[in-house]
Amino acid sequence: MTNEHVTHQPLDVDRFLRETKLTGYQRITLPTGRVIPGADRSPVADLVYPADLTGKSVLDVGCNYGFFLHDAIRRGAKRAVGIEADSEHYRVASTLATLWNGKIDVYQGLLEDVELNEKFDVILLLNVIHHVKDPLPVIRKLAGLCRGTLVVEFRQPHDAQFVRECFHKQEGWAQGGSRSILQRATRRVQNAIETRFLEQITKRLPIIGVGSVEYHRSYFFSQLGFKNMFQVHNRLFKAVEFRPSLTRGQALALCDCTPDGQAGD
Q1: Burial per residue of 149-171, b for 16 or more beta-carbon CB atoms within 10 angstroms, e otherwise
Q2: How confident is the model at residue 10 (pLDDT cuts 50, 70, 90)?
């Protein structure tokens, strides 16, 4: 799937909502004021975007329904581009994008397959890097497309699923529903202790963890591991600032990809 792009007829929003089963993952306020129901992602937008994006361009990789694209335009961005691999999410995102009179474009496919012949001031890779097969080519491509800030949300080694990978893999991933209340409470306390333990011992270590669950949560980085891999060894950006994510076990990396900070391969 490369640069698949669809032109829609004028959108009947009411009919579209009646005929579309939404997941509730993103709440989106449309230009008309109509609200697509879902989770409020605006606190995340406040973390990754400046208040004013006037004249800027934005790329969101793994855009889902496109909340961050719509929010970018509301903050003054002149252009917002989304990439979404899931066909149904793409259908919703590309349809809603038509309400912004050409300011938003959405493409279906993986980042590796989509050809973009432009650079962006802000690029978002939120809650995605643990899904990719190889994170280095992905970050390398995004750094090459960015002339400002690349924001990467990544899972850390104390992420709950990686804790289970480390300590309880032999028990399987599914948690049986037949456990007693006491057993479930004991397991929760045990998991909390294990998570805190990994959080403390990996905080200052350059750790990269690789999980065994295909697609879901395959890569886990400590902050120093992320910096060493992408900034120090591969010189893909000149500086990185870490901020807490709103999701436990994750962190945000704001990577400086301004032209004087980029280096060759």
Answers
A1: bbbbbbbbbbbebbbbbbeeeee
A2: low
